Amino acid sequence: MEMENSRLSSQPVLRLDNVTKAYGTNLILDHVSFDVNEHEVVALLGPSGSGKSTLMKCVNLLEHVNDGQIWLGDTDITDPRARENDIRARIGVVFQQFNLFPHMTVLDNIILASVHVLKKDKQESIDKAMNLLKRIGMADKAKSYPDRLSGGQQQRVAIVRALMTDPKMLLLDEITSALDPMLVGEVLTMVMELKEQGATILMATHEMSFAHKAADRIVLLRGGHIIENGSPQEVMDESTNPETQEFFSYFRNL
């Protein structure tokens, strides 16, 4: 228990401070504040329309906040002077759609950003990509094209691609929602392996049992507000908040 506490006691990798986002008069995020610590897995939960996807886009600078600040380490990434490409290189992002280029092999998809954006040595990038593929048992697929892979395999390749830049943290945005239910398990197993290796992860998900098992902390959004922020046991099992109980009872009854 002491080791676990020390594991999560370091300074935040990500800090959201009163983040507010609106589209016109439609307020999506209303003064949202929370941290993600080093080596911590935080699951972002909430009903559709709660602001999860918008929050993830703000962290990845696909959307700009109206008010508040987002810090990646000691960098205020909401500062207009911030170098967006440099910041994105420090965040590995995996979306629900795999976004692999269909005309490129698995290996070429994986090394693309490393070689052409970060200007890393091509052979070093290939070696690193192959080592990552070996770790997930997909080295034999390096020369395959995405349409030859299952959805689960494509998503695992997308995760490997995100790891190529040695990111400070991973953003996983509903990465299983586009998968056949039979393929979800292999992707979630890979996320669990990343957790065991000490990755820092913020994930938005509808996989409640997985969130309970994998997350160190649950942040529950509703209507753009945080209504819960605590351990899976505190939030999912023990909360007395009627809104929280209503949300999780829906999934228990499915």
Q: SSE layout and pairings?
A:
Elements: H1 2-7, E1 12-23, E2 26-37, E3 41-45, H2 52-59, E4 67-72, E5 75-76, H3 84-89, E6 91-94, H4 106-116, H5 122-135, H6 151-163, E7 169-173, H7 181-196, E8 201-204, H8 208-214, E9 217-222, E10 225-230, H9 232-237, H10 242-252
Helix pairs in contact: 4-5, 4-6, 6-7
Describe the structure.
α4 crosses α5, α4 packs parallel to α6 and α6 runs parallel beside α7. Helix content is 39%, strand content 24%. The two termini are 34 Å apart. The strands form 2 sheets. It has a 6-stranded mixed β-sheet, sandwiched between helices. Strands 2-1-4-5 form a 4-stranded antiparallel β-sheet, covered by helices on one side. With 254 residues, the chain is an alpha/beta fold. It has 10 helices and 10 strands. The protein has a single domain, classed as P-loop containing nucleotide triphosphate hydrolases (Rossmann fold, 3-Layer(aba) Sandwich), CATH 3.40.50.
Determine the strand fraction and express it as a percent band. Answer: 15-25%
Order of helices and strands: HEEEHEEHEHHHEHEHEEHH
Estimate the mean pLDDT confidence.
Answer: 91
CATH C-level: Alpha Beta
Membrane topology: Peripheral membrane protein
Main location: membrane
Keywords: Amino-acid transport, ATP-binding, Cell membrane, Membrane, Nucleotide-binding, Transport
Family: Belongs to the ABC transporter superfamily.
